[in-house]
């Protein structure tokens, strides 16, 4: 038996009573299911509601499109200011952090793939599955950005740094073998998607709920200190990288694009500091 919940504009939700699963579907295919602030606020509201709903065993998250999400809204990326990007990263970082502490086990189906901050959002899941041909990447640098919502700190904590360093510093699509060997994906599917989902949700439903919740809490607490220090580091690195404003000039379809040369960075930082001083003086 299924029960529809809430009236969100970016999400579809329903409750499956047999396995006590809350199904959450990103439902703005016209945005490529990108994480605009409206969607982030609705996700934050939903997860806040879930904090006390211990009777729900599992939260299953998928997307209404074949590809899970582009993460950032690539079509309007160039119009975003540094403050707007910082707000998105900060909000998403907070959501991922909260997902790790929810009493429910979170299962996420990444479908045929995701990129940029959608790949970071996936870090909040306890179990991740995807199509065997899924194109998943942490390709923020390709758009003049850094993975500031957890991609630098959380990814390296959850999987071996040798994987995370290669993924972030190449920006390449990650192979199926690397995704599974690293533990980023628990399973992949081709024609047996529904069987894998049903099996996973059924196995979770058969666990002792008190012990399952406590086990998730224990797993989180062992990493809490690293996550909390990582939040501070991610924010500092992101702010420093935004000085170039590369994301404002590159279009998603451009391949041979010349970003700001690294040797120009020191001059740009000095210019930025002067502008900030002038603004502060004017305000006073």
Molecular shape: globular
Specify the CATH class: Alpha Beta
Output the helix-strand order. Answer: EEEHEHEEHEEHHHEHHHH
Q: Give the second-level CATH assignment, the architecture.
A: Alpha-Beta Complex
Radius of gyration: 20 Å
Q: Tell me the strand order in the biggest sheet.
A: 1-2-3-4-5-7-9
* Number of helical stretches of at least 4 residues: 10
Tally of structural domains: 1
Helices and strands: which structural class?
alpha/beta
Brief summary of the model shown:
This protein is α/β, with parallel strands linked by helices. It has ten helices and nine strands.
How would you sum up this structure, described in words?
It is a single chain. The protein is an alpha/beta fold and 284 residues long. It has one domain: 2-enoyl-CoA Hydratase, Chain A, domain 1 (Alpha-Beta Complex). 43% of the residues lie in helices and 13% in strands. It is built from ten helices and nine strands. The strands form two sheets. The chain has a seven-stranded mixed sheet, sandwiched between helices. The chain has a two-stranded parallel ribbon with strand order 6-8. A hairpin with a 4-residue loop joins strand 2 and strand 3 (21-26). The N and C termini lie far apart (63 Å). Residues 269-280 have low confidence and may be disordered.
List the helices and strands and how they pair.
Blueprint: E1 2-4, E2 11-16, E3 21-26, H1 37-50, E4 58-63, H2 82-99, E5 105-109, E6 113-114, H3 116-121, E7 127-131, E8 135-136, H4 153-158, H5 161-170, H6 176-181, E9 187-189, H7 193-205, H8 209-221, H9 224-241, H10 265-283
Parallel strand pairs: 3-4, 4-5, 5-7, 6-8, 7-9
Antiparallel strand pairs: 1-2, 2-3
Helix pairs in contact: 1-2, 2-9
């Amino acid at each position: 038996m299924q029960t529809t919940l809430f009236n969100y504009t970016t999400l579809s939700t329903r409750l499956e009573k047999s396995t006590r699963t809350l199904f959450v579907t990103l439902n703005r295919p016209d945005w490529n299911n990108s994480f605009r602030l409206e969607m982030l606020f609705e996700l934050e509201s939903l997860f806040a509601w879930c904090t006390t709903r211990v009777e729900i065993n599992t939260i299953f998250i998928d997307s209404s499109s074949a590809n899970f999400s582009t993460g950032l809204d690539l079509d309007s990326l160039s119009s975003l200011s540094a403050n707007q990007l910082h707000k998105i990263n900060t909000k998403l970082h907070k959501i991922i952090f909260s997902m790790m502490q929810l009493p429910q086990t979170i299962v996420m189906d990444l479908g045929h793939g995701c990129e940029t901050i959608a790949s970071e959002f996936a870090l909040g899941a306890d179990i991740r599955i995807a199509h065997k041909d899924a194109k998943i990447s942490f390709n923020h640098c390709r758009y003049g950005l850094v993975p500031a919502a957890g991609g630098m700190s959380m990814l390296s904590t959850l999987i071996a740094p040798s994987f995370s360093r290669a993924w972030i510093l190449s920006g390449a699509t990650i192979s199926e073998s690397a995704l599974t060997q690293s533990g980023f994906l628990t399973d992949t599917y081709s024609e047996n998607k529904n069987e894998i989902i049903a099996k996973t949700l059924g196995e979770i439903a058969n666990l002792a709920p008190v012990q399952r919740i406590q086990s998730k809490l224990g797993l989180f607490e062992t990493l809490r200190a690293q996550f909390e220090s990582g939040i501070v580091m991610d924010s500092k690195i992101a702010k420093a990288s935004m000085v170039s404003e590369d994301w404002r000039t590159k279009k998603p379809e451009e391949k041979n694009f010349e970003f700001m040369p690294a040797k120009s960075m020191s001059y740009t930082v000095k210019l930025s500091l002067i502008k900030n001083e002038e603004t502060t003086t004017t305000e006073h």
